[in-house]
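step: validate -> pass
step: tokenize input -> pass
step: predict -> running
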Amino acid sequence: MAVVKSLWASIQGDPVFMRRVNGWLTIFWILMIPFSVMMGLLSSVAYVSTLSLWALVSGHWSAWQAARVEVEQMAEADDLAKNPIEERVVEKLVKETTVEPVSGAPASSTTTTTTTTTENAPPAGAADAPWIRSRLAEISGQMAELQQHLEDAVPSPG
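step: predict -> pass
step: emit ->
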């Protein structure tokens, strides 16, 4: 019995398999219509009752599967609403990078470099992506402007 339950759970968890099974069952029942008419099975109460029960079971099963998918989608949407991807990306960028002035540049210069800490370094090649470099350059520029505004707002001693 445990093998049957395990097989049933793995079948239900595989949407590709379920789509194929339901597709073939649909084709089978479409082909059964002319066969049933030619063989005179539609006048049999037992046959029509069996078809009705099958239709009832398969309809409810389909509705149940659709409801399961909707519940999973709602849970995923709630999770994304509570913890948006954008915030996770920004938190990771802040955690893994620092903004420092370029050596030899005057303190009032807006030229900065972005360095990555070694303990949270991204995988090799990840920093080479053009969009990451352009985004980091944009963030560096914003940080330099912020630093300049802070330096202008606070008078230097002496």
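step: describe -> The radius of gyration is 32 Å.
step: cleanup -> pass
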